[in-house]
Amino acid sequence: MYVLPELPYAYDALSPLISRETLHAHHDKHHRTYVDKTNDLAAKAGLAGRPLEEVVREAHKRGDKALFNNAAQAWNHAFFWDSMRPAGVAAPGGELARMIQDFGGQQTLNDAFVEEGVNHFGSGWVWLVTGSAGLKVISTHDAEDTLVREGLFPLLACDLWEHAYYLDYKNDRKAFLERWFESVANWEFAAGQLAAADGRGAGFRYPSPRAELADRKPDAAGRPTA
């Protein structure tokens, strides 16, 4: 059984950039719904108990859109929570800082991230990733993520769905992205992801399913038995 991970900070820790009300609704309602649906659909697909990363990739491979959408969104949101931290933490350093300079500098990266997110049509995600060509900013539609993109490793992600910002910014996605990247982007987390991409550490993984439920065989309806 996949669990809803707790936020890595208090609900009001990102205020006023992201309000307590937004985090409560986003985490406790939207993210929880994706997790609950993933548990139901993964059991029916015979994938319950497998790491969520494997479920996302297998659902994509099978063309199981319902499972993919919910599992990927569960994973994306957990990654998103870790991509943020309370304001006041140091800017990028070390190898990440050098790669940002190769990209054109911090302001160039900032502008590219905001522009990618603003110009993305509809719902989705904007990502800072690394690959063979260094740092890159991309966006993905709806639930799609980097787990099904060959050669890309995620460093940061920001949610472009309206539920991520509408209570605080209405339809001003640009203001949300500008403040997000400048004030709450978690560069320490990004540096850890970069190290993992270079083989130094495991990187982000969704919490493992609860063993006491994951090992149960599904009943006739596809749900874990008691």
Summed up:
This protein has nine helices and three strands. The protein is mainly α and 226 residues long. It has two domains: 63 residues, Fe,Mn superoxide dismutase (SOD) domain (Helix Hairpins), CATH 1.10.287.990; 104 residues, Iron/manganese superoxide dismutase, C-terminal domain (minor pseudopilin epsh fold), CATH 3.55.40.
Give the topology string: H per helix, E per strand.
HHHHHEEEHHHH
Named CATH topology of the largest domain: minor pseudopilin epsh fold
What fraction of the residues are assigned to beta strands by DSSP? 5-15%
Strand order of the largest sheet: 2-1-3
Shape verdict: globular
The helix content is 40-55%
Radius of gyration: 18 Å
* Number of helices, where a helix is a run of at least 4 consecutive DSSP H or I residues: 9
State the separation between the terminal residues, measured CA to CA.
12 Å
Q: What is the tally of beta strands? A: 3
In the CATH hierarchy, what is the architecture of the largest domain at level 2? 3-Layer(bab) Sandwich
Going by helix content, strand content and strand pairing, the class is mainly alpha
Which parts are unreliable, with pLDDT below 50 for 5 consecutive residues or more?
Answer: 212-226
In this structure, how is the largest beta sheet organized?
Answer: 3 strands, antiparallel
Total domains: 2
CATH classification, class level of the largest domain: Alpha Beta
CATH superfamily of the largest domain: Iron/manganese superoxide dismutase, C-terminal domain
